[in-house]
Amino acid sequence: MMLLKLLPLKNRKYCMKKILTVGLLLWITGVSHAQESNPLKLWYKTPAAKWNEALPAGNGRLGVMVFGNPAYERIQLNEESLWAGARFDNNNPQAGNNIKKIQDLLLNNENKKAYDLSTEALMATPPRLRSYQTLGDLFIDFGAPIALKNYTRQLDLSTGIISTSFQSNGIKYTREVFVSAPQNCIVVQLTADKPGAINCNVLLSREKDASVVPSGNNGLIMSGQISDLPNALQGIGGKHMKFHSLLKAFTNDGKISAVNNSLLITNASSVTIMITAATDYNFSKLNFDRNINSELICRNILSKAAPILYQQLLQKHLLEYQEMFGRVSLKLGDRDLTGLPTNVRLDSLRKGNNDPQLYALYFQYGRYLLMSSSRKPGLLPANLQGIWNNLYDAPWNSDYHTNINIQMNYWPAEVCNLSETTIPLINFTDKLRVPGRVTAQKMYHAKGWTIHHTTDIFGKTGLISGVSWGASPLMGTWLCLNLWENFLFTRDTSYLKQKIYPILKESSEFVESFLIKNKEGFLVTAPSISPENAFLLADGKLGYIDISPTIDIELIRELYTAVIEAGTILKKDSLFSIKLKQTLNQLPPIQISKQTGRIQEWIKDYKEAEPGHRHFAHLLSLYPGSLINKQTPDLFTAAERSVMSRLKNGSGNFGWSSAWLINCFARLLKAQDAYHQVEILLKRYTDNNLFNLDNVYQIDGNLGGTAGIAEMLLQSHNGVIQLLPALPKEWDKGSVKGLCARGGVVIDMEWNKGVLTQSYLLAKKSGKIIVQFNGKQISINTEAGKKYSLFEN
What we know:
Largest sheet: 9 strands, antiparallel
Structural class: alpha+beta
Shape: globular
Number of strands: 36
Radius of gyration: 27 Å
Oligomer: single chain
Mean pLDDT: 93
Strand content: 15-25%
Helix content: 25-40%
């Protein structure tokens, strides 16, 4: 008997509640299948009881969260461009007439008056963004299973396939779910080892702004359009983004019939379900476009995928997926606990037991999440939740926070051999130049382009969410540093010339025209903040905005250094480079506090309002930048003191903040401190499905953590490749293959008792490289395409 009868659309909320009801009634008996040793597998003995326990998959454009309920499966769906809101100019029209007044107030140390005027004249109109939204859900009602045994659900990172298997009434049932990049669709395969044993009801559902009707005898089509209410928080009201989702089901021996808003499948031995979705979003315009027919896009996608048999769909998926994911392998230690469910291993780790391979699994999971949320056929970069969101109003709108979060998303991209995942970020940054030019001119009377601390797919570049949060006018510059990293790792001079350099140069043009002189004769930024942090003014009150916080000085130095080097490589803009060098000589220095010996966060040695603040913005040139290093010993020591002080006072109290600490400690070559933060990240900020959890899910902790583990094993800044620079004693034995170093070098390593025992370097570009390992340093003149051993046989 079906648990869910053929429900009309008005009962869709009942569908959502059904999952919890079935989950509570379901009792799984018997012993789970013995798990073969697979270090790349997340697996569990029970279905997901909540969204944060479901397992994710994606192809860069479409995402799923699979719950694995035997009786009533839920697969939550996402499409990257399904956002509420619209494109419009959100720059405050009063900004241009007041920016000089605000700057003068700051130059005269009247910070409170400058803050008040900034709140009135600089804040975006309206001051908020709208949210990235869920596409909806696929529900499959199988009826109550009988005598359920040997249940497992798993995500195999080596294949990108989520599977659920169990026995019921003597029949083995298996489900496989993957998101195909080649065919641009979600694929669900249902099988049973007894002919004709599959009977189910398939429902496509969305609670708001959509309807579902049959599409032929074997399909369902969802049609929708997001409604936005016209109020100050949401912006322009009315009907906005249009979207469609199309589902087709196929079976060789069963029967499929459309009834109301669902498909009834009876007496099938296997069923293949394909789903795709599209919106009328136009990436080139950063807006929806009524000339785009999202239904036609869906039909075209499935018309190409539907004739392909499941095994061929699977082979195409594996060929594309495994080429990317399989570039890197990591093994830590010899202990094999893969026979235990992942949640059990995580609980054991929390109780103090060592499981090095769980850290390796977490590392690879981060690579998986990045390539699943940022690659073709997707166009948009990974947002605050990558691509996975089950809400209509997500925390922080699941938007693009540009004051650390989106940059952190891409920290592992280059070093972890997933360089192409950066392409959506590069293309999106390129598109932001258009609205960013308007903001530069209207707000600051400046050339070039800029953006503040958050944006959406419609390219908002004004000052959003409050002066104390958003008055960061150099966040476009920070985005540029991620783009520069792409070149440093690939050394693709053609791409540098055509794509990256123009973006960087125009950002530096903004900085050049935004800088003003202070009374000491330095060129400074004003107004600006140290992201989300505050200081104490002389009267004891909180201050937020000031001139040239340390992050701005570091961002400008990092950007200008990149632009000058790029100009030299491309043999162009020599006069512009000279101008940038002159500006560098007029910037305030990065200062060390005479009171504390730490890096000053602001241009003045203010007392900190929150000594344990979650951000480390003033340490940007330690990581992800590189201008603070062993060759700048005073700053290097002051940076270490800054990190330790933050930590002592309670910092690292978010997953992404803990991940940033891993990377900072790795750059400081403090292996055990870095390892301790990896422990904290997994023990305190990781859910059972290994998602980063800061009360709510954010992907940046996962991706920053993956970057941190890579940074502990390999560093390559400032012209030197360091092997095992921050290896903790807990990982004294291991191997890694496929990590990348700046300069176009791919590295394999093995080590034992903390000592490198074997290493091979593949040079993608010719040139001289310097390598440090086991306390020594060697130079190698490489030829492109050749592999070099650091240990001669």
